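Progress narrative, work stream C.
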Amino acid sequence: MTIWNELAGVDFALKTVDAAGIPTRALQAGSGAEAVIFLHGTSGHLEAFARNIVPHAARYECHAIDMLGHGYTGKPDYPYEIPRYVRHLLDYLDAVGLEKAHLVGESLGGWVAAYLASDHPERVLSLQLLAAGGTVANPEIMERIRMSTTKAVQSDDIELTRARLRLLMHDAADATEELVQVRHRIYHEPDFVANIGNLLSLQNMEIRRRNLLRPDRLARITAPTLVVWGHENPFGDVPEAEKLAADIPGARLQLYPACGHWPQHEHAEEYNPLSLEFLAEAAERAKSAV
């Protein structure tokens, strides 16, 4: 199954959107009264959601973007701390004319989405946190992310890219050869190589600590929230997910067995209907609150 096949049956466009001066690659598909924004993880790219676009685009206006400094989006020369990501996401929403959106964030994307939801509740219809980062600062995991990514970027050996992608998955088969090729190409774009230090700045302990999603921030989130986690997540155990959900008022937790760090990809057949049900419930809750 290729990315092209995953997207079969839906009209979509790959665009470069000017988000306050930062060219931002976006896959846009579907239509509807509400929009869903998909946000990937550290050193990732919009293809992380290839298995999710078609079912969501049947009901919603979908945007999967390469976040600040990632993929084929612009790479300004400064450390990418969470408020920078939030500003870029807000600028993207403004550029495409969206006052509000449902946010679906995986790993780093969840960190950014939760931070935005805590500061700008008026922009968020609902929140999905998929193996979200940002609640802890574990030096062993931070070093694993930093070293595995740096080695893959600094070497032409595609096996290092393959190993970096497989690190995310419980089943290595989910790190498809096509995804490996896409990521290897991105990792070796000259601007990506030159900017890898900025992209990995959150793996620095001092920087990470001042960007963490602390309980008082999570308690400010008012959007309906779904936390999705894998039992074999290599970057965070289940108690981390349970605490994340407990710290957000009214949040719901969904755990998947035999699942690593990409639940939306590894368990797409279960995740997609769960997400659509959650989005519909959020819409009904919003109507009843009016």
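Work stream C, second folded protein:
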Amino acid sequence: MLSIEERKKHILQSANQLLAKKGLHDMTLDEVAKQACFSKGGITHYYKNKDQLLVELANMLDEDYIHKIEDEVAQKESSTGSWTRALIDVSNADLKGERGLNNALVAGAMASQKEGNNSRSFNVIQEHVTMDGYDPVLATIIRLAIDGLYYAELFKAEPLETELREAVLARMIKWTTEAEDK
């Protein structure tokens, strides 16, 4: 038998899968219940509505996102800009759909805003990039550019073609390594 925490995690993982398939507006609690093999009442026992479920999903994915960045940093030699480069690499993989966080992370963050609960990852990322050993203004510009790439994907607001996105991300990596060379 699953513990309460395991049940909640299973529901959130099911919601994340459904969100990736259907998108934010077409996902319902009924569909989440079906995906998770729970009754709708079983879902609403833990999450009173879709917004609350999205807030919890955002919290779970925030932690996962930060851990992926920290794991990337730990795998490489620490140097000026290494945290920002890891952020760029993890975000690039995510935007390619390799990690599955994109829509759920941003949609969940939007729901968090409704609930008055800011996404922890934004604060953690900002703190790390500005303390990464080079110009904090340039680091913030890089973070904001990455945020913009996510929002363009989420809202289908003219997301960049793959080749151009790759070039933009490569330029951002270059900026962090140029800062290291100085």
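The two ends are 57 Å apart (CA to CA). No further action is required on this item.
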